[in-house]
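User: Before I run my own analysis I want an independent prediction to cross-check against. Here's the chain; please return only the structure tokens and, at the end, one sentence I can use as a sanity check.
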Amino acid sequence: MLSLFQRKRVPPTAGTPPTSAIETPKGSMRPEPAASLLATPRRQKLLEHIWQRTSLSRRQFATLYLAPLERYAELVQQFPASENHHHAYPGGMLDHGLEIVAYALKLRQSYLLPAGVTPEAQAAQAEAWTAGTAYAALLHDIGKIAVDLHVEHADGSVWHPWHGPLRKPYRFRYRKEREYRLHSAATGLLYACLLDRDIFDWLSGYPDLWAALLYVLAGQYEHAGTLGELVVQADQASVAQELGGDPSKALVAPKHALQRKLLDGLRYLLKEAFKLNQAGPADGWLTQDGLWLVSKTVSDKLRAHLLSQGIDGIPASNTAVFNVLQDHGIVQPTPDGKAIWKATVTSDAGWSHAFTFLKLSPAMIWDAADRPAPFAGRVQLEEEQAVADGPHVEGIEAAPASTAPIASAATDTGVAALLDLLGDTAPPTAPETPSCPVAEAEPAPSTVPPPQMSLAPAQDRADAHGLPLETRLRAQTNPLRCCRGLPPLRYGHQQPGRRADQPA
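Assistant: Structure tokens:
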């Protein structure tokens, strides 16, 4: 069974000291094996949730999911997911990777893939599309460790991820000259570090899935169809959860692949076109707590810039642009959930004027080293922050609040359970100097061992048709295509979200 994927483990080289025996110099971090990195209770719960979204035995799950996740853990070690945005703490990239896979597989359950084929064909490809969704989510940001980070060993030698997992103490910093979009292109350097050739052989047998997966991993979400939408929404949900936002809103937000284009456009305009921090009329002002951009100006110029780049799908009205920016978490909402803020700008020279603004986090636009100096004057919010509740400011377009529907998490027990899981144990807070983390002293060992995943095969595990899954899989000519040849799925005979082997 699954002999195609079975591979003998290479024994460790004689004389190589175990990780725990390696002395860690001051200012460096000690590399950890996957078992140690994934052993925390929260990560174990995420692994359990991921398994529950598949239709595999423990043995099959260990081959198709756990092995790539372990390789991912050993490769990203204690790297953060970003320098000063989401998951910006040691181990943040590993947490983000597990979260986005869990969210993506939850979302995938709402789709019959690929679209436009018979139910029999969808059933035959179901497990491949589920695995492809997990791989796309896990790999979407892996290129960051190749181009955004400078990693070196304690002796000063440089480490690159294609060298294999770290085996000696290391330290890292973010590259000041890094390009924001380069990590998507760099993902191609690391495919084979996480997925072996047998998995590639399997996935490449499904042309629609294979094409969508390659588009996602190249950062071309607009060509990846439903798979691209699943990854974008799962990414937004993980980011929202870590930043204290509402992940359930991200899970049901309109499915646009515009987030990267909108952010790239804003960064370009702020660098090349916008007038910032003027003592008189300007396009925006930067304060310690936010970037304030004049709403109508930013909407008009952003739309014009994106259209000039040949990018389609840009909303024609400013109100729709505001809604899209808010739906994608690019602009920060007012306390009453609206996109538009109302404030008065006053300079030290005495100039003052009221505007309607979009508020952004400066960390979304600039790295810490590149952030401009804040405005010398002040931006003072008025008592009524929503434009609709106050007088219209001459020359500035007022925009109503976003009307995008928000589904209640209570209506979807699967989403609610996942949100409870992710909120069960708060992730560590970011250190004061995330760009150069220093290994902390190890905590005292707990007397209560964390829950571990049992990888023993579930021989008696039955599928929805009443037969043990292992028995049905052995009957297939290709054991990987575990749904091929099964009768069409009959929805309604089993409660959504319940596995066939779970009690009612």
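Sanity check: The beta strands are 149-153, 158-159, 170-174, 284-287, 290-294, 331-332, 341-346, 352-360, 378-381.
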